Amino acid sequence: MNQTANHLFKVAYYLSLSYLTYLMILITWQYVPINFNVAFLNLKEEEINFTHYQIAFFSHVYSSIFVLIIGAFQFSKTIRNRFSSLHRNLGKIYILLVLAFASPSGLVMAYHANGGFFSKVSFSIQAVLWFYFTWKAYQFAKNKDWKNHQNFMMRSFALTLSAISLRLLKWGIVSTLAPPPMDTYKAVAWLGWMLNLAIIEIYIWKRK
């Protein structure tokens, strides 16, 4: 019974994640080729005039979608056991994209985040933790400490998934409570990554 439930959970997880990732691809595709007058950037009329923001935004958008896609498959035991070289190579790409592009560009964007100081602090903390967790996962892999490597990769991917959870929470709060838009954004700026991280920490703690 437990094995059946576990199998069904995995199927539901991958189906849900695949669909939500597909939606994120559609969102990202709006910015291909580079376009300054679409979607989110319509709210950043002042910031988009800065070259450093342009570089940060498109570096973040283009790298993060690949981080999301790669990360979705890195926790598969089948891939890890049967295709270990693929797992290692995808892991290296994931780490490179986060450390060199997604996290640093996210930190730049955090400085210009909507919602004022409250949101800026949240996104800054998230960007720093994303870098730190990914870097630690890399170090543990180099030392062949696979348990801690997996734990920190799960923490890293929990922050990667905040791109999805933020949007889901925003939709849920708006459709049920309908608070002022900026209040909603300030709330999901924190909840979008803190809930993910809390879930992962509980999962890691229970595995011990």
Walk me through what this model shows.
With 208 residues, this protein is an all-alpha fold. It has one domain (2-207). It is 81% helix and 0% strand. It contains eight helices and no strands. The protein has helices spanning 2-29, 51-73, 77-82, 84-111, 116-142, 146-160, 162-176, 181-207. The longest helix is centred in the first third of the chain and has 28 residues, at 2-29.
Tell me how many strands there are: 0
Distance between the termini: 23 Å
Tertiary shape: globular
Task: Estimate nothing, just give the exact number of structural domains.
Answer: 1
Q: Sketch the topology as an H/E string, one letter per element.
A: HHHHHHHH
Mean pLDDT over all positions: 90
SS content category:
mainly alpha
Content of β-strand: under 5%
- The amount of helix comes to over 70%
Count of helical segments?
8
Radius of gyration computed on alpha carbons: 18 Å
SSE arrangement:
Elements (H helix, E strand, L loop, with lengths): L1 H28 L21 H23 L3 H6 L1 H28 L4 H27 L3 H15 L1 H15 L4 H27 L1
List keywords for this structure.
single chain; 208 residues; mainly alpha; globular
Provide a quick synopsis of the model.
The protein has 208 residues and is mainly α. The protein has helices at 2-29, 51-73, 77-82, 84-111, 116-142, 146-160, 162-176, 181-207.
